[in-house]
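Q: Here's a chain of 165 amino acids. Please give me its 3D structure as C-alpha cells.
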Amino acid sequence: MNATRELRCFDYVNRPFTEVRDLLRQNPNDIFRRATSGAAGRAESLVATLHVDIAGLEVGKEVRIEVSSIKEHADPSLGPVIVFQLAWHATQRGSLFPAMKADLSVYRLSKDETQLDLRGSYEPPLGALGKVLDALVMHRVAEASVHRFVVEVATLLKAELPAAS
C-alpha cells in the first residue's frame, strides 16, 4: 500500500501576475521564510515555522524550506506559469514529522489577479503507527499547515506589492 498523501490548496493575490512573479523570483527562499515565520530579522536563515490551530491551540514546528528549482512555461489555457519546486522538513526530530515535496504554481487569473496553487505530497513518518495517526488526525494537521503557508505567502505578497491602480 502506498502511504504517500497528496495535498492541494490555493489562494489569490489581487496584483498582476508579472509583479507577483517578479517579486517571487527575486528571492523565493526569503519570501517563503518570512511568510511562514513572520521574523524578518532572520533574513540569513532559511528556517521558518509552519503553524496550525488544533482545537484552539496553535502548534508550530520549525522547518527548513528549500526551493529546488524554478521553472517557467506557457500553459495553453492559463498563459505564463512559474513553478517553484519546494521541499521542507522539520529542523529538529525530523524522523517524527513528515517531509513535504510540493510545486507552487503561480499564474494569471485576470489582469489584476494572480493565483498561487500548491500541490504537494508527503509520506507519514513512523511506519505503520504513522499511517494510522495520519488517517485519524495528522492528515488534517498537514492540510491546515499547508493551507496556512499558502495564505501567508499570499498575504506577504499583497503587503509588499503596490495596490493595483
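Q: Can you summarize the key feature?
A: Confidence is low (pLDDT under 50) at residues 38-60.
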